[in-house]
Design a protein that fits this description.
The protein is mostly helical. The chain has 36 helices and no strands.
């Protein structure tokens, strides 16, 4: 990237006299205008190679970033990805697929990733990075071709201008969310198709042969249609293409339509596709549109604040926030100066469209790109979002690069290189924040403390890491900000359940259901909590309600059958489990439940068979390993039981019951030395258990470590004075120790 900053960047009258387009040729274009071949142009292939390498190096650190935020519903819980590729299912993303909902092209690319590598996150990141590089290269090529339509001033390097603008844009930290978050590839896809549409319009107007012109026109319409199926912001692409034609190709709106009527007819038809997609995904699952709790006026005021924030982040990209929540401005007085800035910029754009068309085009392009998401149509889940600046940022960067023509050539190169390095390091640092959910949401809460969703996500990260205490604090903070936040009530219940506070957990689940009565997973969670508290009849009602709302809910099916066992309806439970396994033969939980049901009915061999299937499907399923070991042990098959006890203890080493069961089995097999190791581990977890101290003493004595055994017996007696068994074995051990000492 050193090369591009050394060339003089005196752009040909870009913002001042780069206004009047050259006269169109007979086809309404400028096919005859060609810049002569020069050594610099013959070396032009270095520019895209350098751009590709610099961008890839900057973002390569994101390859192992886990699925974050909306990635999980879009990828991990998106059943249409499992339909194979290609398939009709991938073109019909579900309503809960976050950024893929109503966007079949986005969902199709996710399905392709899943077909190639399943849920391996690396493939998804490589695809996102490839898209980002393609957008940067397309931007570079479009800038070059557009600037060649005008007479360059002496000493101007069009390639230097194009690669500088594309390079600074590609490594800007403001784009990190769009590249690193998997589902935000919708921004990359729509940007790619938007730029391809403009590029194809350019080629259609400037290509010499009729066949080539028609081919490029078809390419433009196809790219526009794909963009419409990628994200709704593509709605302005036909207008921007027409404005581009008027500014740089035909010289007037009428001339553009006259020369390329069929092309613009095709572009207009893509609006029909977009309308169909929008109508078939009404209000994008209740998050976009009118009558959803935010008025158009309030949303417009909020966007005044958002636009000024975006401009600030384009210049100084700190702090960056992945989720601002849904802040809403209700009074003009709260954003008067931001509104003034926006109005001034709009006024300048309108003036420039008349007096300085090239500059006016860039300004209009910026506003038109943001208009679908940042004007008066409310997007209720995210009123401010940095990823919306993915393509609009390219306009701002190009304006800055063009403005730098006023600086001396060497100073311009030095300044651009310094900016490139600073932006690249900023992006590399920002990527590190995405490496864990904990770091991402800790930073988000820091800069958006009033965002309840950020507190919710941080709480979920804490809960996943086993820190239920701090998770409860985050969920309670989210509820203080937004008391009617059903998801926060639900997650609070999960955290309380993890702490064993079952009654409090039930209250939290009921609060979630009061807000959202058909909250299916909350019914399931409440049923689980009630079952753990021994209220099996009430739990059964909750599972029935969950299945009434979602009959294919596997967790609720398994939990319901488990409750039937507790209600002594073993035959009903067995029938339910068998039906579940016919539909889900790989369900380890169903095999576990059926095994327990057979065991409760006294059919141990059938139980052992099902539990073996469970551990084969899921070796880390502790309950299956432990229950299987118990059945094998009861059947006198201790040697077979020990590996399953060991697997359970290895998976959850901090559960003393697992260590004790393994140690007991080892003692019965005569492996006292190994048993002593696991009794010791259990003692460390329960140091005040007199019985456990005695068991450890017996294992130590059996392995010939009498002095240590006596010490453990004495500790047991201190913990429980008068413990008869400990006194008995202590006397025996002392006697054995004296005998061994008296031997010659």
């Amino acid at each position: 990237m050193l090369a591009f900053v050394q060339e003089k960047m005196t752009v040909p009258r870009c913002l001042a006299t780069m206004i009047d387009s050259p006269p169109p040729d007979a086809a309404g274009g400028t096919a005859g205008r060609r810049v002569p071949s020069t050594p610099a142009r013959r070396r032009g292939w270095w520019w895209p190679v350098g751009l590709l390498l610099a961008t890839a190096a900057c973002y390569f650190g994101c390859i192992d970033v886990p699925f974050q935020f909306d990635d999980q519903p879009a990828v991990l819980y998106n059943q249409t990805l499992r339909d194979g590729w290609p398939s009709w299912g991938m073109l019909h993303p579900p309503a809960d697929a976050a950024g893929a909902t109503g966007r079949p092209v986005v969902n199709a690319t996710l399905a392709l990733n899943y077909a190639l590598g399943g849920a391996n996150v690396r493939g998804y990141h490589l695809f996102n990075l490839l898209l980002h590089v393609l957008v940067a290269l397309t931007l570079w090529s479009l800038i070059r071709r557009t600037m060649r339509l005008m007479s360059p001033a002496p000493g101007v390097s069009i390639d230097a201008v194009a690669v500088t603008a594309a390079g600074l844009w590609a490594v800007h930290p403001l784009l990190t969310e769009s590249v690193v978050c998997i589902v935000q590839r919708n921004e990359e896809l729509v940007a790619l198709f938007f730029l391809l549409t403009l590029y194809a319009v350019n080629r259609s107007a400037t290509t010499r042969t009729p066949l080539a012109r028609r081919s490029w026109a078809v390419t433009a319409v196809s790219a526009c249609a794909l963009g419409m199926a990628s994200k709704e912001v593509m709605v302005t692409a036909p207008l921007v293409a027409w404005l581009y034609d008027r500014t740089f190709l035909a010289g007037s709106f009428r001339g553009a339509l006259r020369a390329r009527r069929t092309l613009y007819g095709g572009l207009a038809l893509t609006w029909v596709l977009l309308a169909w997609l929008v109508l078939n995904n009404a209000q994008r699952a209740g998050t976009v549109g009118f009558g959803l709790g935010i008025t158009s006026w309030d949303y417009l005021l909020t966007q005044c604040r958002a636009l000024v924030l975006y401009l600030k982040l384009a210049i100084w990209p700190h702090p960056l926030v992945v989720d601002y929540g849904s802040p809403v401005v209700h009074r003009l007085s709260a954003v008067w100066w931001q509104a003034s800035v926006v109005l001034a910029l709009l006024g300048a754009t309108i003036w420039a469209l008349v007096r300085r068309p090239a500059a006016g085009f860039l300004g209009a392009c910026f506003f038109l790109l943001l208009a679908p998401s940042s004007s008066f149509v409310p997007l209720t889940t995210q009123t401010i979002a940095e990823h919306r600046m993915y393509l609009p940022l390219a306009v701002l960067v190009l304006l800055v690069v063009l403005a730098l023509r006023r600086l001396p050539g060497a100073l311009t190169g030095t300044f651009c290189f310094a900016c490139f390095v600073a932006l690249a390091f900023g992006t590399i640092r920002r990527i590190t924040v995405y490496r864990t959910e904990m770091s991402l949401w800790t930073e988000t809460v820091k800069y958006a403390p009033d965002n309840p969703r950020a507190h919710l996500n941080l709480g979920q990260a804490l809960l996943t890491s086993g820190n239920a205490v701090d998770a409860v604090q985050q969920f309670e903070t989210a509820l203080r900000v937004r008391p009617d936040y059903a998801e926060a009530h639900y997650n609070l219940g999960l955290a309380l359940s993890q702490q064993g506070r079952l009654a409090d957990a039930a209250v939290a689940f009921k609060a979630a259901l009061d807000i959202v009565p058909d909250y299916t997973i909350a019914h399931n969670a409440l049923g689980t909590s009630l079952a753990q508290a021994g209220e099996f009849a009430a739990a059964l009602e909750q599972f029935d309600q969950a299945l009434g709302e979602r009959p294919d809910f596997l967790d609720a099916q398994v939990n319901r059958a488990r409750v039937l066992v507790a209600l002594h309806r073993g035959n009903d439970a067995i029938a339910d489990y068998q039906q579940i396994l016919r539909r889900h033969p790989d369900s380890a939980a169903a095999h576990l439940g059926l095994g327990d049901a057979w065991a409760a009915n006294g059919t141990s061999q059938e139980a052992i068979k099902e539990l073996r299937a469970a551990v084969q499907q899921e070796p880390r399923l502790v309950a299956a390993q432990f229950n299987l070991a118990n059945l094998l042990s009861a059947d006198g098959r201790l040697a077979e039981a020990v590996p399953h006890y060991a697997a359970a203890a290895q998976e959850e080493p901090n559960k003393p019951a697992l260590q004790i069961a393994l140690a007991n089995a080892l003692m019965r097999l005569g492996q006292s030395r190994e048993a002593a190791l696991h009794y010791t581990a259990a003692v460390e977890l329960q140091p005040n258990s007199a019985e456990l101290r005695l068991n450890l003493a017996l294992a130590l004595a059996a392995s010939g470590r009498l002095a240590e055994a006596i010490e453990q017996c004495q500790t047991a007696l201190r913990l429980r004075p008068g413990f008869g068994a400990a006194e008995h074995y202590l006397n025996e051990m002392r006697s054995d120790l004296q005998k061994s000492a008296s031997r010659p």
